[in-house]
Model the fold of this input.
Amino acid sequence: MLYRTGLSTPVFGLRREIDRLFEDTFGRGEGMSAWTPAVDVQETDQELRLDLEIPGMKPEDIEITAENGVLMVRGEKRSERKEGDENSRYHLVERSYGTFSRSFQLPSGLDESKIQADYDSGLLSIHIPRTALPQPRKIQIGQGSSKQVGQSQTRQVGQGQTNSGNQQTSNGNKTSSREKAASTSR
Done:
């Protein structure tokens, strides 16, 4: 898996400006806007690792859950601006504030019960270790419980012959396959 997003690309800048225009025009209720932290997803033989850029947040403001193969990361980054401060005014505000929510569909073969997360210098790293994929299991075919009069027969798959080579007649005497073949050809 390779996900690439260039922060310096013109499309990203345009999208950010359009999002800001809509937020300024229509608002998002209660003065809080939603934002989306950047993420890197890295896969190795041992784990799947997600690195989310969420500077200025405390670990207690972040919630990580995993359920039914979906990893959810939620949080809220509170604004440090104080509205109505008469001594200062903002000329430009580019930092993002508000709530965020990111969800990721996890591939099979990961152990969701052993997910670990670390937060250092604004980078949240989530480590999900791989688990061994279930291997196909060979199933042995046992003897059936069907028995004919006084005798059990085990048939090999695809051969149609009995293991014993002997069959029992209606009068209880055993005859070999050769004797039976000779008697039917007479």
Notes: Confidence is low (pLDDT under 50) at residues 161-165. The longest strand covers residues 70-77.
